[in-house]
Design goal:
The chain is an alpha+beta fold. It folds into 2 domains: 90 residues, Immunoglobulin-like, CATH 2.60.40; 173 residues, Glucose Permease (Domain IIA). It contains 4 helices and 21 strands. The strands form 5 sheets. Strands 9, 12, 14, 15, 16, 18, 20 and 21 form an 8-stranded antiparallel beta sheet that branches. Strands 4-3-6-7 form a 4-stranded antiparallel beta sheet, with no helix packed on it. A 3-stranded antiparallel beta sheet has the order 1-2-5, with helices on one face. A hairpin with a 3-residue loop joins strand 14 and strand 15. The two termini are 18 Å apart.
Length: 280
């Protein structure tokens, strides 16, 4: 299946680049549903908008687009090239989410004091500002899992902490012993390093271009600095349980602009762009 996808990809890219087709080429890799990170393609040098917002495709025509956990309605695309306009509309499909109960957390991390709430709010603004930094690079298309371990919590589940309903879990939790290496899943630039956020503990944010940012939370050790360029496979830190955590794990967040998407689905869609492994 991957061979067919890559063959079609190469053909469409070649046709679009040489002007072999009069109309703009456009298609999506992924499902139009809640929590999805889509990879889209439009004829290179096209102007691409979705619901009126301008996207910035790579030079080869590929772009990323995230759909939030609670998003609904339609995605309305307009692709313009050489005066020709192509439009497509997709309805966002809903998903069902799990209920997850977690007990035994320090009570002040579940119901913080007013002073702690101010700190949490300030740290959220810090992370938001970091995600909005401009990353001057073409987004990689092939991402990999950032750590080895057991998946202890999935994206989208409604969390009930010490009996108190909280916001949904918008990440993938990878559990393993403290000190397990964490690697960069793709090339990027370190946007934020924090040695001890109230909820997140030791935290790293990496920008990959086109508003795609990956976050690494609850670390026991950080091996990178803000502004550093990292390469895919480079060790950036180690799994821990700093901040609000009941055991050692990596809380891995994938976001597009202000939308957090499902990391597992993101990896599945990205896999189609990874080199085909030779069969033994």
């Amino acid at each position: 299946m991957k061979h067919l996808f890559l063959s079609a990809l190469s053909l469409l890219t070649a046709c679009a680049s040489t002007g072999a087709t009069a109309d703009p080429v456009f298609f999506l890799n992924g499902e139009v549903r809640q929590g999805e990170m889509l990879f889209g393609f439009a004829t290179p040098e096209s102007k691409v908008t979705v619901n009126g917002d301008t996207l910035n495709p790579r030079k080869d025509g590929w772009f990323a687009l995230g759909i939030g956990r609670n998003d609904d309605g339609k995605l309305k695309f307009e692709i313009e090239k050489d005066g020709k306009i192509f439009t497509r509309s997709f309805t966002i499909q809903p998903r069902k989410w799990r209920i997850q109960r977690i007990d035994g957390l320090p009570q002040n991390t579940v119901t913080p004091t007013p002073e702690e709430e101010k700190r949490i709010a300030a740290e959220m603004v810090m992370a938001r500002d970091a995600r909005q930094k401009n990353v001057d690079m073409e987004m990689p298309l092939c991402f990999s899992m950032p750590a080895q371990g057991r998946i202890s919590s999935v994206y989208g589940s409604q969390r009930i902490l010490n009996g108190v309903p909280k916001t949904p879990h918008n990440a993938l939790d990878i559990a393993n012993k403290e000190g397990t290496p964490i690697i960069a899943p793709a090339d990027g630039i370190v946007l934020l390093v924090h040695d001890g956020m109230f909820l997140s503990g030791k935290t790293i944010l990496i920008g990959h271009g086109q508003n795609v940012v990956t976050s690494y939370i609850h670390l026991s050790q950080i091996n990178v600095k803000e502004g550093q360029n990292v390469k895919k496979g480079e060790e950036i830190g180690k799994i821990g349980m700093t901040g609000r955590a009941t055991g050692p794990h990596l809380h891995w967040v994938v976001s597009w602009k202000n939308k957090r998407v499902d990391p597992s689905v993101f990896l599945k869609n990205s896999e189609k762009f990874c080199p085909v492994q030779a069969e033994k």
